[in-house]
Every structure is written in C-alpha cells, then in structure tokens.
Amino acid sequence: MNETTIVHYDVVDTIGVITIDNPPVNALGPGVREGIIDALEQGNADDGVQAFVLIGAGRNFIAGADIRQFGKTRPIGSVVSAAALDASSKPVVAAIHGYALGGGLEHALACHYRLAAPGAKVGLPEVTLGIVPGGGGTQRLTRLIGPEAALDMVVSGRHMGAAEALKLGLLDAIVDEPDLRGAAIRHARSIASARPLPRARDRQNWNEADTAPAVFEARRKALTRKSRHLKAPFKAVDCIEAAVRHSFDDGLAFEQQAFSELEQGAEAKGLRYAFFAEREAAKIPGVQASADLAPVASAAVIGAGTMGSGIAIAYADAGIPVKLLEISPDALERGKARVRDTYATRVKRGSLTQQAMDACLDRIGFVQRYEDIADCDAVVEAVFERMDVKHDVFSKLDAVMKPGALLLTNSSALDIDEIASATRRPQDVAGAHFFAPANVMKLCEVVRGNGTAPDTLLRTMKMGRAMGKVCAVAGSCDGFVANRSRAPMMSEMMIMLEEGATPQQIDRVMTDFGYPMGPFAVNDLSGLDVSYEGRKRRAEANPDYRKLHVPDRLVEMGRLGQKTGAGWYRYEPGDRTPHPDAAVLGVIGAVARELGTAQREFTDTEILHRVLLASVNEACKILEDGKAYRASDIDVMWLYGFGFPRHRGGLMFWADTVGAKDVHAQITEWAQRYGSRWTPSRLLGDIAASGSLLRDATGGTHQKATP
Ligand code: COA
C-alpha cells in the first residue's frame, strides 16, 4: 500500500480534510506519517484552504504506531509528523471517533483543536508495550491536563472515555451528532481565522504544588511496590517530570531518549510478543470466522459451587442474563449466598456501587429445573468432576436445550468426546475451562473434542471475549493444555523440596522472576487439597507415577492452606501474611530421609530452570501431540491463567531467551540424572537442531487438519 491510498486528502468548502485509511485500525504504518505531512504541505500552500480536519476512516481515529514496526528502523517517527501538525500555519482540528491511542492520540494532541464522538476512547498505552510515547505525547499531554492527570493516564496506560477526557481539558468538545466529519468541518471554518493558534506545547496547566518533587517520588514509590520488574512505567514518570522541569524542546529530547532506550529492550520485546500472541490465539487455523456468528445473549450454568457461581457472576458482569441451576434447594441457597457475598464484598471495597450490584443480581436467575434453561443460547456445566455425573448432566441438556445451543463443560481434565457421547449433538459440545476465581481470572481455555464443530469453537470464543476473557483453544487430553503444561512445573517444585530447596526460596526465585506471588503461596490460597485427589487418581492409574510425598503429607495432616491457617506456610488468624513454618521443613526432612535423598543447596538459576524447563518440555510434547495450535497459545494461557510475568512474553518466549539448543541440552542432562520424566520431546530436539524458535512452533496435526 502507498500513501496515496492510506492517507486521503480532499478539500471541502475551503477545509483540507486529511483522512487516515489504513485498515484494520488505522495504525501509523509506513506511509501514514508521510501522507499527513504531504497533505499539510499541500494545504498550507493552497490559498483556497483555510484550515484542516484530521480524521480516521472506518471505526477508529488512529489506534497508534504500527506495533509491528517497533524495533525496526523507521524513515520518520511520530515526533516528526506531530511537529508538522503543531507547526501548521493553518489550524488543524482532530475529529476523534473510536480509538485514538498512542501515536494516534499524540497526533491529536499536536492538532490545535480536538473534537470527539461520545463513544471515543483516548489513551497512551505505550507502557503496556514496554515503551513510553515517542511522539511528544508525555510533553503535550502534561502541558494540557497537568502532571497529576498525565501521570494517571500514562503510567496506567488505560483507555479513557470522551466525557472524562473533556473534563480534564484533553478535548475541546464532544460532538453529539452522527456526522462527526461534517461537524469538524464546520468547526474548522468557525475557527479558521482565530490566532494565535492554540498549541498544547505552549500551555502550562499546573501550579507550583502540582510539580513538587514529592508528587513524582510518590509515584515511583508506588511503582516500586507494584511494578518493580518493569522499566517503562518509571521512565514514563521521568518523562512527565521532565515536562514540568524543562522547556518543550528539551522535554521532547528527553522523551525521545527514553523511547529509544526502551524500544529494543527485553521488556518491550516480551510485551509486543504478548500483544500479538493474544490476538493470534483468537484464530482457528484454516477457519475463517464469519462476522454473523450468533452471539450468546443468554446463558445457563449447571452447578452453583465455587466455580459455577463464579462463571454466573462473570456472565452477569458482562451484561449477559444467566440462570444458575442446582437441583438441591440447599445447594442452590448456598450458591445464592456465595453470589451475593461476592458482590457485597465488591461494594464494601468500593469497586462496585450498590446500584450496579443490584443490576448484576437482577441478571442472575436461580433455578432448579432443566426446563427453565431450555431456551438459553449456551450452557456451561460446572458439576462434580466425574464422568458419570457429567454424562447425567449432558443427557439432560441434550433432552431440553434448544437446537444450536452451545453445550459447554467446565471440566478441567475429562475427555470432551466422552462427555459429548451422552448427547446426540457432539458438534455443539466443547470445553469452556475457566480458571478460579472464574469472575476474576481472564483465561478461558476452549477445549475442542474430535466431534466439535468449528463454529462451536468460534462462538464459544466470541462468548468468552464478550465476558472479558482471553480465549485460546486446547485439544482434549488429560489436563488439556494449560494445566497439562503446568503440571511438571508443580511436580518439579515439590521434588526439589525433597532435594533441599525450601518453599520460601522457590517462591522468592519466582517473584524475583516477576510472578506477583510465589507458587507455594498461591497454592496456600487455592488449597492444597485441590490437586490431592488428582494425584491419587493418577497414581492408581499409573504404577510409574512419581508420587509427591511432601504435599500429600501436608494434606493428610490437615494443612490445606490459608483456609486451615496452615499449608506451605503458617498464618496468623485474620492475616494472610505467610510465615515460614518449621513443621513443613520437618515433613520435607522426614520424606528426604525415607527416600534416602541427599539435601543440597540450589542456585536461583537452577531453581528457575528446573521448574520452567519441565513445563517447556511438556509444552513441546503437547504441540507434538497436536493438542495446541501454536506455542504462542500456550504462552497466552500462562499469561492469563497462571500470572506468568507478561514482560517475559510467556513460557515459550522465555525459553527462547535461554535458547532452544541450551534448553534441549539441559533437559537431556536431567533425563540422564532424574529419569524418564525428563525425556526430551522430539519436537524440542527438532527445534534445537534446526535453530528455529520455540515460540514459532505449531501443533503437529493442526497444521494439516482443521478441527
Ligand atoms: N499496530 C499494528 N497492528 C495493530 C495495532 C497496532 N497499533 N492495533 C491493532 N492491530 C491489529 C491487531 O493485531 C489485529 O490484527 P489481526 O486481525 O491480524 O490479528 C487487528 O489490528 C485488530 O485488532 P484487535 O485488537 O483484534 O481489535 P479490537 O477492535 O479488539 O481492539 C484496539 C482495537 C485498537 C483497542 C486494540 O487493537 C489495541 O489496543 N491496539 C493497540 C493500541 C496501542 O497500544 N497503540 C499504541 C501503540 S504505541
């Protein structure tokens, strides 16, 4: 594409209208910045033009720099085209609809006037990509809305609605009429001769107290608590401080420097990868999603336990009416109480108004009969994890649900085809595996059985997205993809305890790596009993199963985690702070003695590699078995299901930073030392030998057969 087709320039009644037309989101790809500059030059040289309008074609103004171009050399950056807008001798009116993000907002900020449609969203989300704005955004924004509001916006990277942006002075007006372009042209004519031109760079919207060093120090302190592993948010604070301390040009130079330092860094690379991995996960190879896939406008959940209630809340939060079904009146009452308590806690914390809670509760019906859910577009079963129980539920669903309803199971391990065999419509059956707490965790693993129709997968993913979830597809196998890939990490952690590592040390290594909490502390939160039954089941089924004696004993001692006041750590009543507990070290020591395992010291790197490489190997086996479409889908699952640090990209992206060859060599060595659980995956061997990247691997059978 060239600039003549991606930036249109027309003169309408003496107004030069510059239209960015670069689908899908009007990113500032090659030629766009140049096209803007050309149009400005043309209009400024034309006596028949009095002013300009800058607008986007399609659904957005400009969604920002083209993220695919980061890390590559660009002929010109946004700083140049923004300066051209700012320096235009004729006024420029930005007409914003849809998204004006990153470089998009920076261009709008460099215009002399900003109008927006009521639904427009603006933001500088660069920190979420590991960088800071590089087109003068931090400098113009701070001058326009003051440092405090600029800090809020830039450090969080959040999208802001038009009403809030108007209140802050970022926008001049909201245009409440369908023809934004026409309104902007009228506005441009009305201000065409007004001088001086209002330029954000000439503003200084603050008083002395707003710029005190303490304002910026407080931000840095808060960031040290929450985002100590990241560089970009700290740099963003520095840039905004530079805006209030220096001249515009010096501030701009400071911002440019910060931008270039970050752009090539590991954090930016990991975050860029995560951005695209997430979007890729929404696609099913070989299947084109049609735009008219029927949405899920009503849903039902079977089973009002913790999971079922959480899923019902997730629907209600997303504005989707839902019926929660329990046959036993007592269990239904408990479910009701659980749902109400969850909402009441949010109101108490101030994250929800009473009115919003009432609206959500109005969307949840509590029912006892299958007939009551028959007309729902989708149903998610969340009952006890046993095949006979699932069969009973699915045969009832088959009998009552309307044709075409999605029949979904929240099972975390059972075979989808076997579940589907209880129905006469296996094409409509899939897994919708939510992660606890289902109303909080963003991952929805969509599980494909052999009989599942592609449209069922696509509709389930569309439903998941409408619920605010990030979806990725898994094939049906024990533990599916997310839990199956994570299981070896969990086992290895436990086995390292027997060899002399401590829960505190492993937790510290993982939080230093970037996890918000260590895995043992998380296990205390979710409950040690959750995995206990599964281990027993696997040990019974497989005589070679490597038993994990330490967690088994803790469960048998009644140490189930925070809920019993003790698990991997000890807890004081009413306090969630984990305290190391000599009793746990006692259990570890006893198990080690019984097994005759010698205790030794571990380095942090050994711990990190032992836990993560165990999972990398399994992830390769999953791909080899054709149970995931792509390595990057596994990364998405780790990011959204397990809190893997986003700036590390994901499990497989991280493994590439170690290098496939070294990963393979290490796993081969551990296979010799520790036995068959470390047998290297064939796919890993192939990748190591070919020098390709682990993160680019695709699932074997999926390459050929579409589901
Ligand atoms: N650069 C390059 N590609 C981009 C892009 C950008 N800034 N923003 C979106 N895209 C691509 C996506 O990769 C996707 O491509 P695909 O269809 O090939 O997968 C397509 O545009 C649609 O994006 P998607 O996120 O699926 O659409 P959406 O309607 O759900 O969301 C946005 C739209 C703009 C909110 C979202 O895409 C977004 O947040 N983009 C990034 C904005 C940003 O951070 N800009 C600052 C860059 S410094």
TrEMBL record:
Coiled-coil regions listed in the entry: none
UniProtKB keywords: Fatty acid metabolism, Isomerase, Lipid degradation, Lipid metabolism, Lyase, Multifunctional enzyme, NAD, Oxidoreductase, Peroxisome
Pathway: Lipid metabolism; fatty acid beta-oxidation
Name of one Pfam family that matches: ECH_1
Enzyme Commission identifier(s): 1.1.1.35
Superkingdom of the source species: Bacteria
Enzyme class label: oxidoreductase
Compartment(s) where it occurs, according to its Swiss-Prot or TrEMBL record: Peroxisome
Similarity-based family: In the N-terminal section; belongs to the enoyl-CoA hydratase/isomerase family.
Name the record gives this protein: 3-hydroxyacyl-CoA dehydrogenase
Species lineage: Bacteria, Pseudomonadati, Pseudomonadota, Betaproteobacteria, Burkholderiales
